Amino acid sequence: MQHPNIIIIGSGIAGISCALRIADKHPDWIIQIITKKTARTTNTRYAQGGIAAVMDTLNDTPEKHILDTIESGKGKCDEKVVRYVVENAASRIHELIQYGVPFDRNPSGELALGLEGGHSNPRILHVKDYTGLEIEKVLLAQARKRPNIKMLTYIQAIDLYVNEKKQCLGAYVLDTRKKEITFLHAEALVLATGGSGQVFDVTTNPTVATGDGVAMAHRAGAEIMYMQYFQFHPTALYKSKGRQKFLISEAVRGYGAHLVNSQGKRFVFEYDKRGELATRDIVSAAIFHELDISGMDCVYIDCRHLDYQDLSSKFPEIVSTCHRYGYDIKKDLIPVVPAAHYQCGGIAVDLNGQTCLQGLYAIGECTYTGLHGTNRLASNSLLEALVYSATAAEHILTHIPSFPHPSSVPHFSYSYIKPHSVVRYSRILRKWMMQSFRSLNNSAKTKEYIQRINELEIEVNAKYGNGLFPALTELRNMIVVARVILENAINQPEL
Ligand SMILES: Cc1cc2nc3c(=O)[nH]c(=O)nc-3n(C[C@H](O)[C@H](O)[C@H](O)COP(=O)(O)OP(=O)(O)OC[C@H]3O[C@@H](n4cnc5c(N)ncnc54)[C@H](O)[C@@H]3O)c2cc1C
C-alpha cells in the first residue's frame, strides 16, 4: 500500500502531540501539520496555570480527580470519559517530561504541584506561569527533529471535502502568502483547530481562535454538541489592550489572592462557601452579578497581603504584565472582568477521537468528548488534548482507511479576492454574542439573536458572494459558530 496521507490541522498541544506519536511509530509515513499563522500562534502557548494530573500518589488519587471533574461539570460529565482521561494522565505527563518539558520541582526534586479552583488537592503541574509556552516550545522542537513531520505555516484550511458515503477525503486550503487555494487529499484528517473565544467581544483567546474547525465540521455534516457551555474565565485584566485580554491565572487565587468589589469587600463567599476557589462558572457569575448591582465595570484582584518576592518568582509573567499596564501587584488592586475563555462543547467525538464522518478525527479544544460537562475543571483542557491526541493517533495507526484519491480535484466554488476590512461585521457579531450569552436560557431572546445573525450572514454573502480571503473566511466561520452556540442552547438544553 502507498504511504497514507495524514493531515493534521492545528499546531497546538493536540495537533503536535498527535503528529509525534504517529511519526515515531511509522517513520515511513509523512504527517503534514498545517497551521494558519506561525506554528506557535496557538491557545496552547498562552496557558499559564498548568496541566492537571495525579502525580502525588501519597496524598491524591485518580478517584479524587474524577470526582472534582464531575463536580465542576455539574454532574454532567461522561464518567467513562473522565475516568479514561484521568487514568491516562500520568503516562502522558511522563512523555512530556521525556520530551523535555521542564515542569517546576520543589527543592527535594519532586514535581511542584499547584492548587486551582475546584481541585480538592494540589495537582497542577506548571512551569512558573508560562506552562503552555514551554510545552509548545518543546513539542515544536521535537517535531522539527522528525523528518517525517512537515509543518506548513500560513496555510488556512477553508473547508473539508466529504463524499456521498460520508468519507472525509481531504480539505481545501488557502496559502495565505501565495494567495492560492489548493485541495489536500488525506486518508486521515485530524482537526486540532482549538477554540472560538474570538466569537465574543471580551476574550482571553488569541486572534486565531475563530472556531474554524467547528464551522468546517458543521458544514461537512459532523455533529456539534453543547457549544452553549462556553466557559468565561473570571479574571482577565480589564484594561489590557487589543482583542485578547491578558489572563490573571486561577493559580494566583489558588496562591491566596482575594477578589474584592469596588468597596474593597470580598464578595464571592456570598455566592459559594469555597469563595475565590469555587469553580469558574460560579466565580464568573458572582462577578457579573456584582457588576450588575454596582453598575461598575470591573472588580479587583487583591494580592497586597501576599509575599511579594515569592509571588513574583512564581508568577513572573503576570507580575510584569500588570506592571506594564501600570499596576504594582504589591500596592495596587488589579482590575479584572470575566472573559470568554474555553469552549466546553464542540465536534462530537468518541473515545478514539473519531467524528461521525469516516476518516475525520478531532482532538483538543475544538471537540466535545464528554469530559467537561457544563463547566471545565481548571487545567483539564491541556490534559484532554494530550490524552485524546494519543488515542486518536493510535486509532489512525491501526485503522487507517485507504480511501481512493478523488479522480479529479473536487470543484470548489469559492475563489480568492483582494482582502477588505470586515471588522464592522465581526464587531457587531461579538457584541451580540456578549449580550445573548447572558440570556441563553431565554429562548425567545435567543431566537431573536439567531435571526439577527442570519441577517448578518445574508448581508456578508450579498457583499462578497463567492469571494474569499483570510479574514472573511474567519468571519464566516464565526457566524456559523455563533449561531451553533445559540441553536445548541435551544435544541440541546439538557446535558
Ligand atoms: C490565556 C489562556 C490560558 C489558559 N490556561 C490554561 C491552563 O493553565 N491549563 C489548561 O489546561 N488550559 C488552559 N487554557 C486552555 C488551553 O490552552 C487550550 O484549551 C489548549 O491549549 C487547546 O489546545 P489545542 O491544541 O486544542 O488548540 P490550540 O493550541 O489553540 O491550537 C489550534 C491551532 O489550530 C490552528 N488553526 C485554527 N484554525 C485553522 C485553520 N482554519 N487552518 C489552519 N490552522 C488553523 C491555529 O492556528 C493553532 O495552530 C488556557 C487558554 C488561554 C487562552
Descriptive report:
The chain is globular and about 70 Å long. A hairpin with a 5-residue loop joins strand 7 and strand 8. The strands form 6 sheets. It has a 5-stranded parallel beta sheet, covered by helices on one side. The protein is α/β, with parallel strands linked by helices and 495 residues long. Helix 1 (13-25) runs parallel beside helix 10 and helix 8 crosses helix 9 (316-324). The two termini are 44 Å apart. It has 3 domains: 5-229 and 344-399, FAD/NAD(P)-binding domain (3-Layer(bba) Sandwich), CATH 3.50.50.60; 234-340, Succinate dehydrogenase/fumarate reductase flavoprotein, catalytic domain (Flavocytochrome C3, Chain A, domain 1, Alpha-Beta Complex); 415-491. The model has no long low-confidence stretch (mean pLDDT 95). 37% of the residues lie in helices and 18% in strands. Bound molecules: flavin-adenine dinucleotide. Residues 9-15, 34-37, 41-44, 46-51, 131-132, 156-157, 192-194, 204-205, 208, 212, 247, 342, 364-365, 379-382, 385 line the site of flavin-adenine dinucleotide.
